[in-house]
Each structure stands twice: as structure tokens, then as C-alpha cells.
Amino acid sequence: MPDRNEDLFAHAREVIPGGVNSPVRAYGSVGGTPRFLAKAAGPYVTDAAGREYIDLVASWGPALLGHAHPEVVEAVREAASLGLSFGAPTEGEVELAELVAQRVTAGGLKPIDRVRLVSTGTEATMTAIRLARGVTGRDLLVKFAGNYHGHSDGLLAEAGSGVATLALPGSAGVPAPIAAQTLVVPYGDLDLVRAVFSEHGDRIAAIIVEAAPANMGVVAPAPGFNAGLVEIAHSAGALVILDEVLTGFRVHPAGYWGLEVERGSSYEPDIFTFGKVIGGGMPLAALGARAEIMDQLAPAGPVYQAGTLSGNPLSVAAGLATLRLATPEVYARVDAAAARVADALSDALAAAGVAHAVPRAGNLFGLVFAPAAPADYAQAQAQEAWRYRPFFHAMLEEGVSLPPSVFEAWFLTAAHDDAVLERIAQALPRAARAAAA
Ligand code: PLP
User: Fold this and answer.
1) Residue 366 sits in a domain of what CATH number?
2) What per-residue confidence (pLDDT) applies to 168?
3) Last-in-domain residue among 325, 344, 373
4) Do 202 and 271 lie in a common domain?
5) What is residue 89's three-state secondary structure?
6) What CATH number is given to the structural domain containing 154?
7) Which domain holds residue 86?
8) Residue bearing the CA closest to ligand 1, atom 7
9) By CB atoms within 10 Å of each CB, which of 88, 401, 411, 417 scores lowest?
């Protein structure tokens, strides 16, 4: 007899393309029926059939404190009682902008003076690019293969052949001339970036890079890579957009940039983008930079950007409450929980004789079915990705919900306590054996 998830998926496909509102949710790469979630609390999610799972998706990152943290929910409830949306400035926006600028400091650097709030990570990166083009008066953008920055046209470009080739559209509906404004370079090799700059340097507005890539699996940048990008870009009069939508406020109070600066790699990107944790589970994202760059945005400057729901008071309340609760102890807990699950994952796969790597970048980690951690997208794609399907479903049967794609990071939260971590460790050996088959 079909369960409630199956009924809902069948119905959803009649009224929603593919049955989902964001493609990865459809379980396309793992097969089976997506779980339609009815509620979430702490480390758990509950599906429409009433089954509870330990969750390692965390809404794809935002739930740093665990789902529905009571103080965050209360802050949203209180904000809701005062009105859902004003389309006018609010005091909370000022507090949130200031908090972001204060948190993103490290090694004596304070690279953010001003912050613009938007609603999604896609909007944040899209705006950052327009701003970089407005500031430099140049058109071309350098991005790395396998880095994801949201779904705006120019960022869905796919690498053509050859390092310095102008990109091809990565999706139907993206005009070739727009994709051709993006140069797609394999990740991780500064010499390739130098080669691109030596050919096109005077036309490049910016390099955009994930602070630590986590959308082709997790790939920790080599020490000095991000700093090297800043050096190359600046010497050609271009900017660097450090995309911290996923890493920002998740891996460290000052993002992956803060983690790197703390580890001794001192560099200053020009524009930061944030999303996910900054909204605490509500639609909110941001970009931030020094005043001279940010003041080019409308109405202060000529680069247009706007949004009916930008700085929405419920989102701002959730973001403020989340960041205020995200103390160093929270990061220590998440770091420890991530290390424990990553170790248990590696142990289970080793015991089952499965070639694997568990690459880590701060408290982010992922699973790769290859003997060594990939350094770029081509290597990430070369793994035995088919092993993830049985692995994923075995975990689901054991009551642990993983990201439904091998190319996604696993997300821990501060609500994953000892008992929950132990249950994950207990579930892993069976899944590892399933992956070995
Ligand atoms: N940038 C990065 C690094 C991301 O991981 C994502 C989403 O996963 C985005 C941008 C786009 O954010 P959103 O999905 O909120 O549009």
C-alpha cells in the first residue's frame, strides 16, 4: 500500500514540475520517493507518514542551532505579531547589518563596512556580480567548474573546452551571449587562473569563488588558494567575490574567510556573499563589502538593486536571533559533532572494504566513493557515485536522513547530542555494507 509520501509525490507531480520546488529534493540521483516533511525540531525531521529521522541536511545549511530553536521561533513569532512585511526600513535591519560587519573580522582585518540584505543566495551573488561590473566597468566573470553560486543565468555557465574558453550555457534558456560573459576554470590551480588573466585580464570584472567548495562534494581550498586569487585579481584591477552563502557563519563565527585568516592566510576579498545561516531558516541573504564598493549600490550609487521583501522583518528577526545564539561554544559543538560523524563514516566504510574519502573543510564534510579526496570537479565526477544510492537508502531505513546526492555536504547542528551521534554511528556499518555490494 502506498504511504503518504508516495501519494503526495504523485499528486505533487501533477501540480508542481517534477513534484518539487528545487530539483535536488526529487531524489533524482538516489531514486525512490522523496520524504515530504511535516515538521522539524532539533536534530530531527518528521515526514508526512509520521516517521521521524535524524536529519543531516539541516535545510541545506541554515539550521546551525538545530531545527526550530525555541528562541528563534519566539523571535519570529514576536516579529509576526507586529506585521509580516512593511516594504520600509526597520531597526532590525540596521542591527543585522552591524552584527554581520562586526562578526566578519579576523587578524586585524575588517573587510565589511556595509551590508545589503536580499532574500536568497542567488540574489546575493547576482547582485555582487552586477556591483563588481559596475565598479570596474568590465564585463567578464571568472568562475570555477563545480562551484555553485545559485541559478542566475551567467552563473549556470558550463566550461567549454580549453582553459580560457568562454563558457557555454549550462541550462536551457540561458542565452549563449550571456554564458559567454563567464570564463569557467578548473578549480584549485592558480596557474590556470593566471593564464586566463594573461589572456583576458583587462576585461575581467571579478573572480567568484566558493570560500570552500561544498557543491561538488566538499573540497577544502589548498592553503593560499583564496589568497592567491585575490593577488591575481587585484594585480589586474579585478575584484574577488568570496561566496560564503554556505560556509558563512556555519564553519566559524567569521565564516571560512575567518577560519583561514585565523590559520595564518591573510587576505581580503572585495565582496562577501552570505545566505543560509544568516537567515536562521527564513529567506534572507546578504552581500557585504567596504563602503567605497557598497556605496555604488542604489540609491547611494548607480548600480541598481531592489526587493519587495528584502530585509523582511520575520527573516531579520530569525537571522538576528540565530547569529546572537551562535556563540563560540555552538561552533565547538558543531565542529566536534562533525568530526565524530566523519570519523565514524570513514571507519564504517573502511571496515566494509569500500574505497572512499571523507574530505573536510572546517565542520563541513562529505563522502566520496574514490580512494582519494578530489581536488576539482572532474575528479569529483570520476568517483563511483552509484554506490551512494544503496548507502543513502540504508541510512534512511535506519532513520537517518542524508542529503539525497553524493555531491552535497553533510550538515551537523548544535542540537545533535551524544545520543543522536551514537545512533548515526550505529546506522553507518549497515549502509557501508550496502555500498560495498
Ligand atoms: N552560493 C552557494 C555557495 C550555495 O551553496 C548556494 C545554494 O546552495 C547559493 C549560492 C544559492 O543560494 P540560494 O539557494 O539561497 O539561492
Assistant:
1) 3.90.1150.10
2) 78
3) 325
4) yes
5) coil
6) 3.40.640.10
7) 72-325
8) 150
9) 88
Crossing angle for the helix pair 190-200 and 225-235, to the nearest 10 degrees: 10
Distance 436 CA to ligand 1 centre (A): 32
Q: Where are the alpha helices (DSSP H) in 83-189?
A: 91-103, 121-136, 176-179
Which string of b and e fits 208-236 if b means at least 16 CB within 10 Å?
bbbbbbbbbbbbbbeeebbbbbbebbeeb
Does residue 25 sit in the same domain as residue 141?
A: no
Please report the pLDDT score of residue 160 as a whole number: 66
* Same domain (yes/no): 21, 86: no
CA 41/CA 274 separation, integer angstroms: 24
Tell me how far the alpha carbon of residue 337 lies from the centroid of ligand 1, in angstroms.
24
pLDDT, tens digit (0-9, with 9 covering 90-100), for 333-355: 999 999 999 999 999 999 999 99
Side chain identity, residue 379: Q
Coil, helix or strand at residue 385: helix
pLDDT of residue 157: 84
Q: Is 46 exposed, middle or buried (0-12, 13-18, 19+ CB in 10 A)?
A: middle
pLDDT of 167: 76
| pLDDT of 163 | 53
Active site annotation includes 388: no
User: Could you read off the pLDDT of 376-399 as tens digits, one per residue?
Assistant: 999 999 999 999 999 999 999 999
**Three-class secondary structure assignment of 116-133:** EEECCHHHHHHHHHHHHH
Residues in the chain where the model's pLDDT stays below 70: 1, 160-166
